Amino acid sequence: MVDLTEQEKAAMRAAMRRVAETMAEIGWGTRFQELSEAQVLTLIEVAVGGFQEAMQAIARQDTAAEVPF
Fold this sequence. Notes:
67% of the residues lie in helices and 0% in strands. With 69 residues, the protein is mainly α. Helix 1 (6-26) packs antiparallel against helix 2 (37-61). The longest helix is centred in the C-terminal third of the chain and has 25 residues, at 37-61. InterPro entries: DUF6511.
């Protein structure tokens, strides 16, 4: 398990909100194995994009912080 920083944990929470919005569009009753390849890729894209955007926003707030990517 990776030791996450507080900033990374906050970014994960921000990404989780975006994933939840996408799941609401797909339907919460849909089992993972029933998702199409496109839906899974969308979920991954939303999660990664949300995490990156949140980390960048955190870095802008703290000019001393480096963006790790």
